């Protein structure tokens, strides 16, 4: 059994999405995976600062 994920809808500036899409393609990953990875890194950094 895999990790259960939920779908969410967000609004982003179109130019930012295009830049993220280009980076995701360079890394051979989906846009969704790239955004999830970025957010996980951000949360990890926050947690490190509070401990």
TrEMBL record:
Protein name, per record: CopG family transcriptional regulator
Organismal lineage: Bacteria, Bacillati, Bacillota, Clostridia, Eubacteriales
GO biological process, one term: regulation of DNA-templated transcription
């Amino acid at each position: 059994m895999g990790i259960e994920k939920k779908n969410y809808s967000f609004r982003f500036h179109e130019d930012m999405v295009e830049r993220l899409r280009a980076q995701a393609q360079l890394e051979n990953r989906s846009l969704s995976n790239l955004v999830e990875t970025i957010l996980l890194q951000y949360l990890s950094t926050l947690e490190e600062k509070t401990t």
